[in-house]
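Thread title: Can someone regenerate the structure for this chain?

I was given the following input by a collaborator and told the matching structure tokens would be attached. They weren't. Posting the sequence so someone can regenerate them.
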Amino acid sequence: MFKKITAKNFQPFGRVIEFPVKGLKNKKHNLFCIVLTESRPRGWRIAYLVVRDKTIHQLERHSDTYESFEPVSGKTVLYLARPKSPSKVESFILDKPVILDKGVWHGVITLGRESEIKITENARVKSDFFPFFPR
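Best answer:
Regenerated them for you:
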């Protein structure tokens, strides 16, 4: 079945976008935290994805960029596999924003009519694909 995203179980694939707990004590001021900095000056792009697929037929990966998946609306399932094990897939309900590590295989489906996701990644992305047929 689908896993709930936690910082611990998501760690093999990337990181959860969240504020460190230690900074939540000050309730009088806005809080700011840089979650990830890419040191190479490649530029970023922000994309908006409307997911309507209810089945998944392939996974993709980008070995040269981190990639964020930030849920906006609807219920989305995020399928993930480690870079060297594309056939060992785990699935998560995308209920909080996450950053995938470089090279992580991924794909998405919606559990409703459609769902929407904000994506941030390098301006130029090289993609690899792996056929995937869930049981």
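The mean pLDDT is 86.
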